[in-house]
Amino acid sequence: MKLTRLLVLIVLITIAACSGLNESEVNSANDHGSSDHFISERTSINASSRPNIDPEQYSSESHEWGEFVTGVKTQLDTEEEVIALTFDACGGPYGRGYDEELIDFLTEHEIPATLFVNKDWIEHNEETFIQLAENPLFQIENHGTDHLPLSVSGRTAWGIDGTSSPEEVYEEVQTNQQYIYELTGETPSFFRSGTAYYDEIAVEMIQDMGLEAVNYNVLGDAGGTYSSEQVEQSLLQAEPGSIALLHMNQPSSGTRDGVMNAIPQLIEEGYEFVHLDDSPLK
C-alpha cells in the first residue's frame, strides 16, 4: 500500500512539472490517497473552455444602439406574480463598495436575487464574492470585465467609451466569464454590459457565446442616483414578470432603504421573488 502511494506521488510530481501545478495541489491530491480525486478536480477546473466563435466573422457595422436593442431580454416570460430583483456590482470608478446591510436584509427575509458582478469588483471583494456565490439565495451572473458599453464600433454611453471591435466585445464578456468560473466552478448564463448599452451585433455575439443579454423593465435606482423614496416607488410599479435593475455596490445611495421599504408591500400584494433562470425570458 505504501509503495502504491509512493508511486502515485511520483506520478503526480511528474504531472506537476509538466503542467505548472503547484506544490499545494500535489499535496492535496496525496492527502486524498489517490490520483483519481486530484485528476477529476483538475479536469473540472479546465472544463470551461473559451467559446468556439471567431470574432472576425462578425460585422463591425451596427444599426442599433441602446438598452433595448434586438435580442436583449427585459422580462420574465410569465403571467405569474413574480419579480426578478437584479443587483449590479460595477467596480472601478463606478463603485467598488458593498452594501452589506442590503444583502443581510435579503438573506434574513430569504429574498432571492440575481447579482451581476464585474471583474474589478470581484478582485476588490473576493472573499465577499465567494460568500455570495455560495449562498443559494443569490444567482451570480456576468457584468463584464471593464464595465464597458458593448459595441463593435466604439460607441459611447453616458460618457463611457464602449468596446471598439468584435474582438473587444469578446474579451469584455469572456474574460470575466472565465474568471467567475475559476472562482466558483459555475458558468454564468446571463450577461449585462456596463451602462446596459449594446448594439445588435454585440448581442448576437453574446448569444453565440451561450449567454443571454439581460436588462430590465423596472429601472430600480437609476445607477444608484435615486432617493430611497424614488427606489420604493419605482419597485412598486413592477408587474408580473418584471426584471428590476438595482445596485449593491453603492451603500451610501438610497437603494437599500428603498428596497427594504418596497419588498414588504410587494409581498403583501401577492408577489414572490425569483431568479432569472426560474423562467424563460422575453
CATH homology superfamily name of the largest domain: Glycoside hydrolase/deacetylase
| CATH architectural label of the largest domain | Alpha-Beta Barrel
Q: Which structural class do the helices and strands define?
A: alpha/beta
Report on the biggest sheet.
6 strands, parallel
CATH topology of the largest domain: TIM Barrel
Q: Mean pLDDT, as a whole number?
A: 87
Radius of gyration: 21 Å
Strand content: 5-15%
Cα shape:
globular
SSE order:
HHHEHEHHEEEHEHEEHEHE
The total of beta strands comes to 10
Number of separate structural domains: 2
Ends: how far apart? 59 Å
Poorly predicted sequence stretches spanning 5 or more consecutive residues: 1-48
Count of DSSP H/I helices: 10
CATH class of the largest domain: Alpha Beta
Helical residue percent? 25-40%
Protein name: Polysaccharide deacetylase
Keywords: Signal
GO molecular function: hydrolase activity, acting on carbon-nitrogen (but not peptide) bonds
Q: How is this structure best summarized?
A:
With 282 residues, the chain is α/β, with parallel strands linked by helices. It has ten helices and ten strands. The relative contact order is 0.18.
Molecular structure report:
Keywords: Signal. Residues 1-24 form the signal peptide. It comes from Alkalibacillus haloalkaliphilus. One of its GO terms (molecular function) is hydrolase activity, acting on carbon-nitrogen (but not peptide) bonds. One of its GO terms (biological process) is carbohydrate metabolic process. The chain folds into 2 domains: 2-45; 67-278, Glycoside hydrolase/deacetylase (TIM Barrel, Alpha-Beta Barrel), CATH 3.20.20. Strand 1 (82-89), helix 4 and strand 2 form a beta-alpha-beta unit. It has 10 helices and 10 strands. The model is unreliable at 1-48 (pLDDT under 50). With 282 residues, the chain is of the alpha/beta class. The N and C termini lie far apart (59 Å). The longest helix has 19 residues, at 166-184. The strands form 3 sheets. Strands 1, 2, 3, 8, 9 and 10 form a 6-stranded parallel sheet that branches. A two-stranded antiparallel sheet has the order 4-5. The protein has a two-stranded parallel sheet with strand order 6-7.
